[in-house]
Write a structure and sequence with these properties.
The complex is a heterodimer of chains A (about 160) and B (about 675). By secondary structure, chain A is an alpha+beta fold. Chain A is about 25% helix and about 20% strand. Chain A has seven helices and five strands. Chain A has a three-stranded antiparallel β-sheet with strand order 4-1-5, covered by helices on one side. The longest helix of chain B is centred in the N-terminal third of the chain and has 19 residues, at about 20-35. The chains are: A alpha+beta (about 160), B alpha/beta (about 675).
Chain lengths: ~160, ~675
């Protein structure tokens, strides 16, 4: 199955938040949850009088690439609402070609709820190593020093190691 | 809902009533008050307009009062630009031509992409001002338009600009005069256009000699060579355009800034050319503001508050003067105001300077006050006796324009998506029903609300029922209308001004008592005019930069939008923050000799070391509505720091973007609890 993604032209993302809000409306995400977020990098002074300011919309782990919409042949809601027309949806192999066309682009291939996508834990089928059978002799109980593998004779050596030498 | 006037400010005292009871109450109060004080005792407080219109008929055809009042001091929003364009060019507003009215849009053969666009005190992306589609600027940049930014703050567009002039707030006229100075001195203006179509060029040339670039550089705090570079880039680019914003209006010297900007557009030959500044066709406008005004108020127009003192302002807006209306509310002179109506105005949160003064004046003067709103506002809670539910955009059909019908781009139509929830009415339904109830004789030619909508909003040219499914219709666009006679009522070539030309020397300014040529005046409170205040108030305060997600005081109760900007922010430069012990996100008090307000600090180099910027329009719908709290509307209200009565000679302007202030950290926190906002206003389960 081909992978799909979002190609973002961040040269022209103005930070209008239309993607963020429309996504929340589409998916009914409450306050505090987002399917896409605009990351704000700026303003900071790059050289005298020249300020850096990029805004980069990045899909979150709650982005399902609008499976309900794209399943019906419609574009994801963020693409539909983007005021600057900087988000493109498509197959990764096609979008990758567009990366060639201009600078300041980034291609996201989101994964919806990775903790669910990876599935429940299933133990390996090979069985792995098995325990061996053996007899074990009990030792005389001499207290915690043995249980914690401490040896009085090594104390001095420890101190030396922790010192300034 | 109604409430006894003695309980104004009590959120728990509203009583739900029926439409019929509400209309009865309004009629009874209206008749009682106007019988005693006359219709002029009614005042309609207007805001920035709804459905892209000013809703003037509430005043002219419902209450029939000359006193419609946009309550911002000096009408310091849009109207100074509008009035200067009307006086100097004889048009509504020379807007950037972004091919909005052409069938083929940017690819239309009639269109040319501007080579250069100056964004002057304007944030088109955030504000989409007056129907302009802000992201058209992005469309143009993609097609090659290069940007010049004139703005004290760094903004996203300025980081993509070829030049960014970070002038000191309030000094725009000095910059404008210096740009004219350079362009004229270097002869890089359109001599043919100047010769044929402008008036007073030589006098303008003489005047701007007063402002050589080195002088402007000192006043504005920008480099002289940058002023030269901007002048040359703008003058040699063809076509070139200027988008001029709210910053032009929000100072006493704003009419002169507007004069400079119009002169720049004119002498470079960019007026009414493709990709330049597009003008409205004299045949195509919708005169909504003056709709049925003669019949509605007639000679009472002359009783309008401020008309005698500031005719330049009142004649062009058809509105009473804000500051003088405030004084009338306080003094009862020249006559008392007794009946109030808010037509889309939340003045205690947003529109008005010294908001507590306005609240007191309104409550002490008005015997009855009402509004129609989607949401309870601090202003309605503090001052109203009746509130009618307003239909939201989803529940009603509607019509929207660019520039209130005054710009030749599109008429748009909203189509209702759901049936009305509850008992709401749209503004136009309310105007129609209440107008008919109070003055049936005035409304005989409107058989239905749709009749009224067609007449008011579509100038009789279209019928709403025929066009609304098109969503938008484009006006026909013609360029160089000064050659064809489509700018003048007599259809002669030229402009709709006394001299028939663009008046670089304004005979109307002169008639009205102002200097016909541009001149620079320092802001009343500034590092230059009041250096003695700098010890106490060392920072220049600029306010009101637009915030994504909010329109002025609206949308604070929409959780998804509030979440984008949950708290009122003040921007302060990192060096100042470090010096004053202010951490990013810390709550602060911003204050000056007029008042104070609490803001959360955003430490950013978007502002320079001399400047502080504070957001506007804040209130907290999730807070307690009872007075004196009133949803916290006075807590983070930057208008507490801005006085009334600081306008220019013609009555326009207010120092909203050029005051002085200081800032200090505080220990309390007022952070918004988004969980509470979601609980009160969210979608629920």
């Amino acid at each position: 199955m081909p992978k799909y993604g979002l190609l973002i032209d961040y040269e022209y993302c103005t930070g209008c938040a239309s993607c963020e809000v429309s996504c929340k409306e589409e998916h009914n995400y409450p306050v505090g949850q987002w399917g896409i977020r605009v990351h704000d990098d700026g303003p900071w002074e790059m050289e005298e009088g020249v300020f850096h300011w990029n805004r980069i919309p990045a899909p979150t782990d709650l982005c399902d690439l609008c499976a309900d919409r794209t399943g019906k042949g419609r574009e994801p809601i963020c693409v539909h609402h983007c005021m600057a027309n900087v988000i493109r949806f498509g197959k990764v192999e096609d979008l990758a070609l567009h990366l060639q066309e201009k600078s300041k682009q980034v291609l996201f291939v989101p994964q919806y709820k990775p903790h669910v996508a990876k599935g429940p834990f299933v133990p390996g089928k090979k069985g792995g190593h098995k325990g061996t059978v053996s007899q074990v002799k009990a030792k005389e109980n001499v207290g915690y020093e043995i249980a914690t593998h401490r040896d009085r004779s090594s104390k001095t050596q420890f101190d030396n190691e922790g010192g300034n030498s | 809902m109604k409430r006894d006037p003695k309980h104004r400010g009590r959120a728990d005292k509203w009583v739900q009533i029926t439409h019929e009871e509400a209309f009865d109450l309004i009629e009874k109060e209206y008749k009682r008050i106007t019988a005693k004080y006359g219709r002029k005792s009614c005042v309609v407080f207007s805001g920035t307009g709804r459905e892209g219109g000013g809703m003037n008929p509430y005043a002219t055809n419902v209450l029939r009062t000359p006193n419609m009042c946009y309550t911002q001091s000096g009408y310091a929003c849009y109207l100074p630009r509008l009035a200067s364009a009307a006086y100097i060019v004889g048009v509504v507003y020379p807007e950037l031509d972004y091919a909005g009215g052409l069938p083929g849009r940017y690819d239309d053969p009639a269109y040319e992409v501007p080579e250069c666009l100056i964004l002057w005190g304007k944030a088109p992306l955030e504000s989409n001002p007056d129907g302009f589609f802000g992201h058209a600027v992005i469309d143009l940049m993609r097609r090659g338009t290069r940007i010049i930014s004139v703005d004290p703050r760094v903004n996203w567009l300025s980081t993509r600009a070829d030049h960014h002039l970070r002038l000191r707030p309030g000094t725009d006229t000095a910059l404008g005069m210096a740009l004219l100075n350079i362009i004229i001195k270097e002869g890089i203006y359109d001599k043919q256009f100047v010769e044929s179509w402008t008036y007073g060029f030589d006098k303008l040339a003489e005047r701007v000699k007063d402002m050589p670039p080195e002088k402007a550089a000192g006043i504005c705090g920008v480099k002289m060579e940058d002023i030269y570079a901007v002048a040359r880039m703008y003058a040699t680019a063809k076509p070139a355009a200027i988008q001029w914003g709210l910053a032009v209006d929000q100072k006493a010297n704003g009419m002169q800034t507007a004069q400079c900007i119009i002169s720049l557009m004119s002498i470079t030959g960019n007026i009414d050319v493709p990709g330049g500044q597009i003008l409205a066709d004299i045949n195509g406008n919708v005169n909504e503001v003056g709709y049925n005004m003669d019949q509605g108020i007639g000679d009472d127009f002359n009783l309008m508050i401020g008309l005698q003192e500031y005719p330049a302002c009142c004649q062009v807006t058809f509105q009473s003067h804000a500051d003088l209306t405030l004084k009338t509310l306080e003094t009862g002179k020249p006559y008392p105001l007794k009946f109030g109506f808010y037509a889309g105005n939340n003045l205690l949160s947003c529109t008005s300077m010294e908001p507590q003064r306005w609240a007191k004046a309104i409550n002490e003067s008005l015997e009855f006050c009402m509004t129609i709103e989607c949401f309870m506002t601090p202003t309605a809670e503090a001052t109203c006796d009746l509130i009618f539910p307003l239909a939201t955009i989803c529940e009603r059909d509607g019509t929207v324009f660019t520039h209130y019908g005054g710009s030749p781009v599109t008429i748009g139509f909203t189509n209702k998506a759901v049936e009305k929830q509850g008992e709401s009415l749209s503004d136009l339904e309310f105007v129609y029903l209440l107008g008919k109830r109070l003055h049936p004789d005035l409304w005989t030619d409107c058989k239905s609300v749709n009749d009224f909508i067609d007449k008011l909003r579509l100038g009789g040219r279209y019928k709403f029922k025929d066009v609304h499914k098109l969503v938008s219709v484009q006006h026909e666009v013609k360029y160089r209308k000064f050659e064809t006679g489509d700018l003048r009522r007599d259809h002669e070539p030229g402009f709709n001004t006394p001299t028939g030309r663009i008046e670089l020397y304004s005979t109307i300014f002169e008639q009205l008592g102002d200097d016909p040529l541009p001149y620079y005046v320092e802001p009343k409170y500034s590092p230059v005019s009041t250096p003695e205040l700098l010890d106490k108030y060392p920072f220049v305060l600029t306010t009101g930069a637009r915030v994504i997600g909010f329109f002025h005081s609206e949308h604070r109760q929409i959780p998804y939008l509030r979440e984008l900007n949950p708290n009122p922010l003040v921007e302060i430069h990192p060096k100042n923050a470090a010096k004053l012990g202010i951490a990013d996100g810390q709550w602060c008090e911003v204050y000056n000799q007029f008042g104070s307000a609490k803001y959360k600090a955003k430490v950013t180099c978007a502002v320079d070391e001399k400047t502080i910027h504070a957001q506007h329009g804040w209130w907290f719908p999730e807070d307690d509505g009872n007075a004196p709290n009133l949803y916290g509307t006075f807590r983070s209200n930057i208008n507490n720091l801005i006085p009334n009565f600081h306008f220019g000679k013609l009555g326009f302007g207010a120092p909203v973007k050029c005051m002085l202030c200081n800032i200090k950290p505080i220990t309390e926190s007022y952070d918004t609890d988004m969980a509470l906002v979601w609980k009160k206003f969210g979608k629920g389960e």
